[in-house]
């Protein structure tokens, strides 16, 4: 698909569909300037084709057949290779309504040799034409989707190439080693410098260490990019919905003193000091004959299985009950923070019992109706998210599963190479492992990634990007 369509001129609406001050249609490819010239009348009557690159030109969009004025607009041409895609680009900025945007886009497709762009196709061209690498292309989408300042910092570090250059620093020395071994294999009788296997093993070991440092940061990076799915669970009336509202700073969920108030689960994003939490408030878990409540309870149980983190709420004002014991059973071996709520009131919960049951889980004491303990809870969650992370520059964090899988594979190939060298296995086999490691690192930045992987990545982009 890549090879066939790369020469087409493509167009899409680049701004969200809805009502906005301004909307942008982006056209990229060899026919872009000529086609826009046929529907755009500049106020000074000069064609865009005769204008300097990167200048804004005011005029009107006119249907060439009916002579109807569709909208007034500002057009900017950016001649390749000095453009987002490295091709000729025209951006048409019209008023930000559905109708002007759609009419102008259909007009372009109708009169010109232009087709609708696939999701992510502009950025894919920026990648295929060599302006950015694959990690940078993925960062474009991460910027659009960023939910907190910390997520944005990771993504913009990736876009600026900080992460990619880190990968290259790890990867380039491998190629030197491969070349060296290959020379020795291909020209055994010639005077290729003697290779000291011990020294090579040390070097590979250093590269492995660097990969492991990156992998240790992968969990943090993934959470900052994708969010931490956090389920609030507990028996009815412990204050789950009150905690959700507190973390969101809004009255999102209904709170009453009637046990069984929340029936359906509620999902919302909260920014916890930079950590994007996808919080799910669930129905209080208890035995019930109520048909609707039962479904809610089943959903709550399923979130215990799905969530990255569980906030298990207990009511500090009440002794342990059967429903609490059941919850303790359900959260066994999960990633849990025990939260003892209502600490603004007199406490009668046997905390030692909970500690014994959930040894290993951290405990926070809060009052969901005030700010009591919320800071403590935040710190506990932050500690969990940043635990094991040894990379302190957000721009260097591994931030998606594709990248961490590639790093893991590279690391395994390097371990195999060391083992082979250690066992005096022939060098051509060592080279195979070194090359595989080099290729997996290349997948991250797109040097060696297959067409399928590339297509799959860009298909997840939005239209117009
Ligand atoms: N109007 C508009 N705003 C936008 C974009 C866009 O495409 N259009 N962007 C799109 O996502 C982002 C900016 N990213 C961009 C990155 C590179 C180039 C570009 O033309 N680069 C050329 C050099 C430009 C020059 O020489 O002035 C290059 O790198 O060769 C443009 C936008 C955000 N804002
Ligand atoms: N004093 C005090 N009251 C609280 C606190 N947290 C919640 N409450 C009260 O406890 C009652 C239940 O709160 P909810 O947030 O609805 O409890 P829930 O766990 O969501 O209950 P269900 O949806 O029924 O499972 C309400 O009357 C809240 O005002 C707290 O920290 N201190
Ligand atoms: Mg509730």
TrEMBL record:
Subunit structure: Homodimer. Heterotetramer of two MnmE and two MnmG subunits.
Protein species of origin: Pectinatus haikarae
One protein family per Pfam: MMR_HSR1
Residues bound to K(+): 237, 256, 258, 261
Swiss-Prot/TrEMBL keywords: Cytoplasm, GTP-binding, Hydrolase, Magnesium, Metal-binding, Nucleotide-binding, Potassium, tRNA processing
Cofactors that this protein relies on: K(+)
Signal peptide, first to last residue: none
Residues annotated to bind Mg(2+): 241, 262
Family the entry assigns: Belongs to the TRAFAC class TrmE-Era-EngA-EngB-Septin-like GTPase superfamily. TrmE GTPase family.
Chief place where the protein resides: cytoplasm
The protein's name: tRNA modification GTPase MnmE
InterPro entries: G_TrmE, GTP-bd, GTP-bd_TrmE_N, GTPase_MnmE, MnmE_dom2, MnmE_helical, P-loop_NTPase, Small_GTP-bd
CC cofactor note: Binds 1 potassium ion per subunit.
Subcellular location: Cytoplasm
